[in-house]
Design goal:
eight-stranded mixed sheet, mainly beta, single chain, Leucine-rich repeat, LRR (right-handed beta-alpha superhelix), disordered N terminus, 2 helices, 495 residues
Length: 495
């Protein structure tokens, strides 16, 4: 008890001395600063007078001190050992991230930490940082200067996505992991360079590859003219050429076996592409919206089968015709939908999986209608051999005026005739039992439709946005989905 009382007396005396001292200098006493609590989000104050020069790598002396602290920099203490930057809410155009906060090293720039800051021009990252999180600098439209110190090992998914003003990027030797879409939509970027000592990545002519040179990871979006992929490459990674709209041609070598999903999507400057016989897989949406593409040469292999996944050539509006070689064995749904100029899909007679009749694609037996090219016009009668119409098979065939469906059809799949805006008449035979979701959606010129009693169910939005549809005849026993018809439609029941 004596020791405790003595300590109390000493603390009171010390407080009195502190108060007297503060009164003498005219400033109120401040309470002792609270130690950082683990997991708490904190905010620092600015000291811009002591900021290092922007655009320069911070010195060791600057890294070792806690100032300057940018106003609006929110952070979190992790395991009482390190700091994660959570969010920057300030308005400065140039920011230097401190190496130390509350005496702890800043090691992580967290997810979305600086994202969506259009006024941000320059960021200095200290050499204490090891991780740049997902979308950390995403959509910093005017960011032109950022340093990646040799301490960083991980660059997260979409870390610099949408940094449209970055013209180049240097990856230090320490980086071992780069996430997906890290440099997507960096329109001005023409060069990604990699330290030669890096063990995971390499760069050739400003294009990013894995260290072995077998996987092409990212071609910067600002690349122009013609580009030839090195002959060491076997895989073109997803989004590798995404929105490289300034490229006019890309030569794919015979070493490539895989073109992953979205690999060349929105390469709107491409006019021709040759797929070498070595390729065994073309991923989903691989050439989506390459709208100037007028020629696709898919070369056949005598030994390897080629699978083309769904939507691979969607909205290649410049294509007028395409030929599938014998090696194509698998096609995904909607592979050529919305190719507005496409009038003919032909298939090599030696192909064992598919065939073509009148420019329309079928499976080899003729029982499945796979795709009607969007440029087809006038009236069309589906052959009586057909038992199945594929999903989106007639998607946006806006030049078709009438469709005759044979009695061999029992179901109309979702989206089959979606956006056939020129369609004025369609007969639905009594063999049909189901009309699925959006099957005739946006058939804007269709004035009326008669649905036979054999149809037991009509899916949601089956005739949605058919703006001129005023009359529908059907059975009271037919189950009708939500918003199957426009609100103004007059329904007449035959029973």
């Amino acid at each position: 008890m004596y020791i405790k009382s003595k300590l109390n007396i000493m603390m009171i005396a010390l407080s009195a001395l502190l108060l007297a001292s503060c009164e003498r200098c005219g400033k109120p006493a401040s309470p002792p600063e609270e130690a950082p609590r683990d997991g708490a989000i904190r905010e620092g104050a600015a000291d811009m007078e002591n900021s290092p020069a922007f655009g320069a790598q911070p010195s060791e002396e600057q890294d070792a001190r806690e100032e300057p602290f940018p106003e609006g920099l929110l952070y979190e203490v992790v395991d009482e050992k390190a700091i994660t930057i959570k969010r920057y809410t300030g308005i400065e155009t140039r920011v230097a991230i401190p190496a130390l906060i509350d005496g702890l090293p800043v090691t992580i720039i967290g997810e979305h930490a600086f994202s969506g800051k259009p006024d941000l021009i320059s960021v200095i990252i200290p050499s204490s940082v090891t991780v740049i999180g997902k979308y950390a600098f995403g959509d910093c439209d005017n960011l032109t200067n950022i340093n990646i110190p040799p301490s960083v090992t991980t660059i997260g998914n979409e870390a610099f996505r949408g940094c449209e003003s970055l013209t180049s990027f240097t990856i230090p030797s320490s980086v071992t992991s780069i996430g997906e879409e890290a440099f997507l939509i960096c329109y001005d970027m023409t060069d990604i360079s990699v330290d030669p000592q890096n063990s995971a990545y390499m760069s050739v002519n400003g294009v990013l590859f894995d260290k072995a040179g077998k996987t092409l990871i990212c071609c910067p979006a600002g690349k122009t003219g013609a580009y030839t992929i090195p002959s060491s490459v076997t895989t073109i990674m997803h989004y590798a050429f995404y929105e490289c709209y300034k490229l006019t041609s890309v030569t794919i070598p015979s070493s490539v076996t895989v073109i992953e999903y979205w690999a060349f999507s929105i390469c709107s400057g491409l006019t021709h592409i040759t797929i070498p016989p070595s390729v065994t897989s073309i991923g989903e949406w691989a050439f989506f919206l390459c709208y100037k593409l007028t020629s696709v040469d898919i070369q056949s292999s005598a030994t390897a089968a080629l699978a083309i996944e769904e939507m691979a050539f969607r909205e290649c509006k410049g294509l007028t015709s395409i030929t599938l070689p014998p090696s194509v064995t698998s096609l995904g749904d909607g592979m050529f939908i919305d190719c507005a100029s496409l009038t003919n899909i032909s298939v090599d007679s030696r192909n064992n999986a598919y065939m073509s009749a009148d420019g329309i694609l079928f499976d080899k037996t003729g029982k499945i209608l796979v795709c009607c090219p969007a440029g087809k016009t006038g009236a069309y009668t589906i052959p009586s051999s057909v038992t199945t119409i594929g999903r989106w098979a007639f998607y946006k065939c806006s030049g078709l005026t009438s469709i005759t469906i044979p009695s061999s059809i029992t179901s109309i799949a979702d989206g089959t005739f979606f956006y056939c805006s020129g369609l004025t008449s369609v007969n639905i035979p009594s063999s049909v039992t189901t009309i699925e979701k959006q099957a005739f959606g946006r058939c804007e010129s269709l004035p009326s439709v008669t649905i036979p009693s054999s149809v037991t169910a009509i899916g949601d939005e089956a005739f949605e946005r058919c703006e001129n549809l005023t009359s529908v005849t059907l059975s009271r026993h037919t189950q009708v989905g939500k918003d199957a018809f426009p609100g103004k439609v007059k329904i007449q029941y035959r029973d």
